[in-house]
Amino acid sequence: MLLRVPLARRPLSPKTCARLVASTYTPSTTWRSGSSIARKQPSAVASTRLVHNPRLARAHANSPYTSQRAQIRHATNLASRTAINPPSNVPAENQQLYASLDRLKDIASDYVNQSRLQLALRGLETSRPTVRIGLLGLGRDGDVAARKLARVLLADALGDEGQWEKMLKQPSQDGKPLLLRYGAEDDIPRMNPLVNELNIPSRVLEKNNLEILITTLNTPSGPNITADPSGLAEAILVPPLQTPVASSGRTGFVRYPVHKAIVVGEGIQGCMDFGRLSSALEATPLGVTGAEQDLIQVALSVPRDSRRTQTNDTGLISPVDIEQAGLALDLFRQDVANGAIFNSKWQASNIQAIIKFIASDPIDPVTGDSVGLRPTVQAHIRSTLDSAADAIALSEQVANNAVISNSIPDQKRQEISQAISAWAQHAHTDLQVSLANALDSRSWRRTTWSRLLWRVDDVGVASEEVLRSHWLLDAESTLAFLAGRIEQAGFFRSRVPQPTTADLLNTHALTAKVAQTGGIDIFHSRPWPLAIHFTRQKLLHTLVPSLQARAQALLAQSLTTIGATSALGVWLYIATSGTMLAESGAIAALGLVWTLRRLQKKWEGERETWAAEVREHGRVVLSEVEDVLRTVVRENERGVLRQTDIEDWQRAREALKEVKRALGDVEEVEEKVQEIGVKV
Fold first, then answer.
1. Contact 603, 551 (CB under 8 A)
2. Are 564 and 546 in contact (CB under 8 A)?
3. pTM for the complete prediction?
4. Neighbours of 15 (CB within 10 A)
5. Which among 54, 124, 13, 386 is positioned nearest to 233, based on CA atoms?
6. Which residues are registered as beta bridge partners of 410?
7. Helices within 406-492 (DSSP H only)
8. Which InterPro entries does this one have (predicted)?
9. Of 236-240, 555-559, 568-572, highest mean pLDDT
C-alpha cells in the first residue's frame, strides 16, 4: 500500500514525527522534495528509522526551540539488491554459506575475483535474488545487435510497442552501457555515472527477477587474443565499464559483474570477430569450462529464413536471427491473424533458446520466489570458486617456475657431480702414489735408524719436505680448477659475504703495512676450498715436531743405554783386576747390540706410524672436501618456495573447501525440501 505524504520544507515537529510513527508509515528519504512515497512498514521498523540521538533528544525536550529544531535522521530504503553496500538481511538457510564466502573474501583476496564474490554475497542476502544478465556486443555493431536482441527478448507480443522498444532500436547516444530493470515506463530512473538505467514493464524481467546489462565486449584482438585465455571468461562475466575521472578528465574502468553473459554478434563481421575468440573459449582449460558452461552463451545473428540455414545449437554457440524475430513480432502486433506466420518465424529465429538460457531457474508460481537457492546463483558461486582455485594453482605454478628458473638445472648439477667424483678418484690415487714416492725418496732414506746418529737433525727437514713437496699437491691444484668450474656454473651467485678475521680485528692497517714493506699479503684468500692447505699446515706444526722430538728421544735413550752398559763392563774389568776381560767385553757388546736393535725397532715403528697418520689425514681431508663440494652442488642455488606463500595457498584452499561444504549443505537441504514437496 502506497501513500503520498506531503512534506513541508521546514523540519518536522516531534508531534508530527510521533503521529507518523503511530500510523506505521515512514517519510521519504528525499528531504527537500515537495512530496514523495512512504512505504507501509511495521511500527518498530519505522520507529527505528526515525530515532534520533537520545542524548540530544533529552536536551532538546527542555529547550524552547525543540518544536522547530528537532533533529531526525532518515534512512534510505531504495538501495538496489545488487548495489555495492545494500542492507544486509541474510536468510537463515544462507547464513553459513554467506559467512564462508565473506571469510573467503578476506583470506583469499589475492586469488578470488572481488567483484564476482561481492555479487554472490548480494545474491545470498535475500530469498529472491536478482539475476543480472549481460548482453555483450561483439565487434563494431555489437552494441546495436545487443539492444535489438534485448528488445525481442523482453517485448510482449500481445501488447503495443512501447517507447522503450523504440529506444532500443536506436544506437546508444552517449556510448554508455544500458541497464534494463523491471518497473513502470514512466518511472524516473536513478542517475548512475556508470550506466544508463531504463525501467521496462517486461513480464520476463518481473517473473524471473532479472536485470539486463547491455554493453560491448572489450577483449584483446589480433595475435594476442589467445595470449591469456584464462582472462576471456573473466572479461565476459566481469565486463569493464568506462567511467570518467573528474580530476584528470580521462576515463577509467570499473568492473561490473554479471551472473550470466550472452556474447552477441551480428552478420558476417560478428562471426569473424567471434572466430578469433572461439578457439580460446572452447579449447583452453581456463576458457569456458566447469560451472562457466552454464553462465556463458554466444548468440550469432545470421539469416535463418531457409531450411538450409536453420542450424541447431552447438553447445556454446546459438545461431539466431534477430531481424526475423523482430519482423515476426511486428507482424503479430499488426494482426493477430498472423499468428501462424509469427510462430513459424519465431521458431526459425531460435530466440526461444536465448529466452530459455536467461530464464532457466525454476520459480514458485504462487510466491514468485525461487525454489531454494537459485541455480544461477549456485553456478555463479561455483564459477567464482573454480576461478579462485585456478588462480591459486596458477600462482603456485608461477612461483615454482620462478624457483626453477632461478635454480641451476639438474643436468648441470649432474655434470659437476661427475667431475667431483673424477677428482676424488684422482686425488686418492695421487695420495697413494705421491706418498709412496715421497717415502722412497733419498731425503726420507736419510732418516733410517742406521743414519740417525749423525742425521737426527735432518728428520724434521725430511718430513717437512715430504709434506710440502709430495703430499696432495696435484690434488690441490686440480681442486682449484674444479672450484673454478663450480663457481662458473653459478653455485655461488647468492653467497652472502661473511666478515673475515681481518674485518673483525680491524687489521687492515697492519696488513697494508706488511704488504708495503715485505710485499706479502698475509691474509691472501684462495678462491677454492683450503682444507688441504690447512691440513698440511696442521701436520707441519704437529706431526713434524713430534717426529723430530721422538727421534731425539730415542737417540738419547740409545746413547744412554750404550754408555751405561759400557761403564758396567769397565767397572767389572777394573774390579776384577783384568781377570774378567772377556766378561766385561761381553757386557758392553750385549748392551750395544740390544740398544741398536731396540733403536731400529722403535724408530722404524715411529716412521711407519708417522706415514700412516699422514696417509690417514690425507684420506680424511679428501673425503671432507668431497662432501663439501657435493653439498654445494646439491643444495646451493636451488630455489625454495617461501613458507609464507605456501601457508597462504593452504589457507586459501581451506577457505575454498569450507565454501564448497557450505554450498553442498545448502543443496542437500534443497533436495530434501523438494522430496518432501513431491511426497505431499
1. yes
2. no
3. 0.66
4. 10
5. 386
6. none
7. 410-439, 442-445, 452-455, 458-470, 473-488
8. Mmc1_C
9. 236-240
